[in-house]
What we know:
Strand order of the largest sheet: 1-2-3-5-4
Largest sheet: 5 strands, antiparallel
Number of helices: 2
Bound molecules: guanosine-5'-monophosphate, zinc ion
Radius of gyration: 13 Å
Order of helices and strands: HEEEHEE
Amino acid sequence: MAEDCLFCKILKGEIPSTEVYSDENYYAFRDINPGAPTHVLVIPRRHIARVSDASGGDAEVLGGLMLVGNAVAKLDGLTDYRLVVNCGPQAGQSVFHVHLHVLGGRDLAWPPG
Ligand code: 5GP
Ligand code: ZN
């Protein structure tokens, strides 16, 4: 847990969120500013600031993140969806606790902006 991390505060229940999925290693909740009918954020309970900080020891936690993304999409009845990780401000990362965006429920343009 990192003291000043918004998503660690969500994990601790200090900031409310709408839960979609939870287990001992991950938590998934609806994005406060959804960009699509389904816009869920999946976070590892372990604080990693950005995906570029990950190393070999994080392989399992990062692999599992994708699997939880699949599970969340299924819970929302999606077969087609996008899983996104932004790394760094220029790529659009605004919260520095690794999170997987699960987006779907409408046609999604490519490439993103
Ligand atoms: P990023 O831009 O870092 O890839 O994604 C951060 C996401 O967190 C954004 O889509 C933003 O809307 C979402 N977000 C920021 N603050 C909160 C919050 O307090 N609650 C929830 N549920 N989502 C948040
Ligand atoms: Zn954190």
